[in-house]
Design brief:
Elements: H1 5-10, E1 16-19, H2 23-32, E2 39-42, H3 49-53, E3 66-70, E4 76-81, H4 90-98
Parallel strand pairs: 1-2
Antiparallel strand pairs: 3-4
Length: 101
């Protein structure tokens, strides 16, 4: 997602990651990758509350990998949960974003 951030911005989208990890662990992860180009939001207190609300909290209290495309009115237009080790296809997400009003 970080590598495609400019494509998302050009389509009028903002990429946010939500993780049950605390802010320090997120910062360490980002640094280990040489930095990322989008914001990471902490869902650590109370742990997993947002992930649970979106239906992606796993039984191990971690967030499952998922994408949610939310329009300007705050309505989820598309969502997908990915199996462990899978990555979302940027090429499939951009046209959906571009199709939003």
């Amino acid at each position: 997602m970080s590598e495609a951030n400019e494509e998302f911005e050009a389509a009028g989208a903002i990429v946010l990651e939500v993780s049950v990890d605390d802010v320090q662990k997120q910062a360490d992860w980002s640094e280990s990758l040489g930095g990322i180009k989008f914001h990471i939001l902490s869902d650590a207190d109370p742990k997993g509350r947002v992930s649970e609300m979106y239906g992606i909290l796993s039984q191990r209290d971690t967030s499952r990998r998922a994408t949610f495309i939310i329009d300007k009115a705050g309505v989820i237009q598309e969502s997908k949960i990915y199996p462990p080790g899978s990555l979302p296809s940027v090429r499939k997400l951009i046209p959906v974003i571009e199709g939003l009003e």
